[in-house]
UniProtKB/TrEMBL annotation:
One of its GO terms (molecular function) is ATP hydrolysis activity. The keyword GTP-binding does not apply. Belongs to the ABC transporter superfamily. The keyword ATP-binding applies. This is ABC transporter ATP-binding protein. Keywords: ATP-binding, Nucleotide-binding, Transport. It comes from the Bacteria. The lineage of its organism: Bacteria, Bacillati, Bacillota, Bacilli, Bacillales. Residues 3-230 form the ABC transporter domain. It comes from Alkalicoccus halolimnae.
């Protein structure tokens, strides 16, 4: 099982949002995508999950495109968090996970496991709007992973989290990787990538400016840390 992007390109009118990205990410890898605002990270993710059609090139998981029949194979944490504020945590997760073909009882069992892990075990019957931003983010993360996807796409998963919650999420992500999940996440911060990934790509104005093994990149560019700057 491999995630393979081949000459992946997306143009919106005059804007080349993503331009000729080539990538191969093997099963169980944790891959970082770094870039400033507008670099093309979200557009790349939307093409991978089948939400946007590429202008040219392909994005394939295990040899074919992710279309409606395969969406349960992926988990997606969108940058614009989107939960239903009036639903309880339980209702929210049952609604979303049924779309991923999970049985109700399995959803509840998995939900309780994750709520305990995230130290919000009493939150199952709270409405989403009653939760703090950080706790909403944990619920959104659960909605991306509860159905045990093969491929997990996380758009800025650590942004807006305090250090305790951020560490909690990082540990969860590492455990999922150890269980064999392939994970791609975006970030503005090299620190997150250095902590979690062996391989990365750095995007600027839709193109890859650097990609490959983290330690080799750092060696060849003689950097202690890579700074990501907007234009
Ligand atoms: P951020 O960190 O701010 O989310 P990003 O790296 O995810 O940035 P994208 O959201 O992929 O970047 O945007 C890449 C470029 O494509 C930007 O110039 C953006 O304005 C443009 N763009 C994205 N979506 C659309 C759209 N639907 N219509 C027109 N232009 C778009």
């Amino acid at each position: 099982m491999t995630l393979e992007l081949t000459n992946l390109t997306k143009t919106f009118d005059e804007t080349k949002a993503v331009s000729g990205i080539d990538l191969k990410i093997d099963r169980g890898q944790m891959f970082g995508m770094l870039g400033a605002n507008g670099a093309g990270k979200t557009t790349t993710f939307r093409m991978i999950i089948g939400l946007l059609d590429p202008t040219s090139g392909t994005a394939e998981w295990s040899g074919s495109r992710i279309d409606y029949s395969r969406t349960h194979l992926i988990g997606y944490l969108p940058e614009e968090r989107g939960l239903f504020p009036k639903l309880t945590v339980k209702e929210q997760l049952i609604y979303l996970m049924r779309l991923n073909r999970m049985k109700k009882q399995d959803i509840i069992t998995e939900m309780r496991k994750w709520l305990e892990r995230f130290q919000v075990e009493n939150y199952e019957n709270k409405k989403v709007e009653e939760l703090s931003k950080g706790n909403q983010q944990k619920i959104q993360f659960m909605a991306a992973v509860l159905h045990k996807p093969e491929l997990l796409i996380l758009d800025e998963p650590f942004s807006g989290l305090d250090p305790v919650n951020s560490d909690m999420l990082k540990e969860a992500v590492l455990d999922l990787q150890n269980e064999g999940t392939t994970i791609v996440f975006s970030s503005h911060q090299m620190r997150n990538v250095e902590e979690l990934c062996d391989e990365l790509i750095i995007l600027k104005n839709g193109s890859a400016v650097l990609q490959g093994n983290l330690s080799e990149i750092k060696k060849s560019y003689n950097m202690k840390s890579i700074k990501i700057k907007a234009d």
